[in-house]
Structures are given as C-alpha cells and as structure tokens.
Model the fold of this input.
Amino acid sequence: MPRLVLIQDHHVVPVAERAFLDEAALQRLLEEDPELIALDDVDPNSSPLVPIGREVPLAGQSLDLLFLEASGRLTAVETKLWRNSEIRRTVVGQILEYAAHLMTWSVEDVERQAAHYLADSRTPDRFRGQPLGTALESVSGTPTSTEEAGENALQAKIADKLAARDTCLIIAVDRIVDSLRNTIAFVDSTSRFRMFLLEIQEYVAADGMRMASIGIYGAARPRPGTTAGPRPSWDETRFLERLQSDSDSQSAAVVQDLYSFVQDEADSVIWGTGVNVGSAAFGVRRSGVRFAVFGLTTKGEVWVGLDTLIRHEVSEDARSFLVESLRSAGVNVRDDQWSAFQARQLTDPSHLQGFKAAVLGIRDSLG
Done:
C-alpha cells in the first residue's frame, strides 16, 4: 500500500488517514469548508457553494446540508459513512425525496432558510452574520454593483433555477461502495438534475497539518474526441451463465450465495478479465487503494489471497480468523499464500457463515 508523506524543508513527515468517527464529523467538515465539494471537477458550469442550511426539515426527516451557488442553484448534501447499511440503497431514495420537496420551494423559502442559518450561532464564523449576497460574493469573488441590484439579480437567478428544476444532489461518503456509485451514475445520466457521489478522506501529519483526498463521481462520459471501447472485464450476467455450465451444482450454489454476499457487503465487486474463466472478488478500499479479500470463479472455485492481505497490513488476528474458518471446513490453506479450493467445501451452512464472518472481520478491521 502506498505510504503518504508530507515533505517540508527536507524533512519527511508521515501522514496517516484519520477515520471519521461519525457522520456528524464529515458533515461539519463540509459545512466549514464547502470548497471540498469539488463540483468543478465534474461540472464546469458550477460555482462555489455557500451553506444555507444544516439538518433542514424535509419530508418528515432532515437533510444534512443545504448549499446555494452564486448561479442560484440549490445543492443538497447527505452524508453517510461506509459502515452505515443505508449507504448501499436507502440513501438514494432518501436524497431524491429531499429533492422533491426542495422543488416545491419558492424564492422566499430559500431566502428565509438562508437568513435563519446565517444568523445561527452554530454557523461557521466565515459565513455567520453575513447577508446571503455578501456570503456568496466572499466565495465567488464576484462583487455586485449595488446592494439592491445584487439582491434582485440573485432572486431572479434562484427563481430561474427553481422553475427549471435545476438542482444538484450529492451523497458524501468516506469510502465509495460500487453499488452506490453505479446507481448514482445511472440516475445522473438519465435525469434533468445532477447527482454526484463525493468521497472524502481526511489525513493528519505528525505536526498536526490536515489534508484531504477528494473524489467526485457522476455519470461516466467519454472525453472529447474519444469513444468508449469494449469492456474487457466480466459482468454479472456472463459470470452467472458461465458458472452454471462450467461447475458442478453444489459449487455453483455456494458461489452464487457468496456472490450475493459480495454484492451486499463488499466495498466493490472486482471483476476479472480472463478470456475463458470469469472471476468476481470481494473488494475493499483502504486509503484510496483497492484490493481483494477473496474471489470466485466460473469454475466453481473460491480463492483467498492471504499474501495480499499481508501486503496491505491486515492484522494478524483478522487473517488468522479467516484461515481457521477455512481449516475448520477441511480446506487446506496456507496462512501466507494465495490458495484456491472448490466452493462445495463450504456447503455446510455453519462453515459458510464462519467464512463470511471472517471476511467481514477483515473488512471492518481496516477502519
């Protein structure tokens, strides 16, 4: 795994990832420094954001953060940590419901919400106590000619965006889960509004300096002058069809069960690119690096990469739990090497559950 360091005056300062202890910490970070919401990476027409709401009551719940652009567009942000089970499916419906309610707002609703937030004692110092127009000027760097002209122009912009149902939805996470990214890419590519997934990880150097890694994703679009090429990797349909024809029934049943487990619990499904044998692996991410804990093949095999887990500094206790779960099922596996076996060796439900528990132990040990 790559090591992150800070170079200062010919001194190398180690930098460590600092996990968000709760969603409120991620929410505060984005509220205090909305520049971290790097919309300009995916939307060249975007402008800097100013927060105008925290825990905004909508649809009988509360939207984590609400922002306004100088263009008049509202941006709704919902934060979720990867450990939260809602990160895989529920959060998408949740933020869409919030958007539906925001689209019923008037210009007066937006201004009232902004005025309440900017006067709140909990609002970050850099925004608190400012008129909305002044706050927007402070981040956009574009002054208005007069106070009255600026206010009228802003009201017109907000009205235009609301009428056009032009809003932006962002789900902010500390670690990307592929199922969520795929859903967001689909919604973003088929909707009038924009929907993005923001991944943000915070790092702290030994001297206390803070840094962040930011990635923002929406619908995949080819770069100008290029065309999308054929996808070289396997996919679910091809994998499951070939599994039925190339493996025995017992192994196929276990592989299908484990594939569902991968979809539900992995950070991502890592698809293989083999010509004749398809594979799908349980992917996890740590400090921006993705690797596989175990994998499945269309030949009805399961493989575990203990050597990979060692390289990525998975704890010895977590690795030992995985090894013992397999040995208890009669699988001959080394604790420091790549190993493969027929999936039917995990036919016994207790052995299968023990293996799954060990995999989750590895995932959760990564923090």
Remarks:
- The two ends are 15 Å apart (CA to CA).
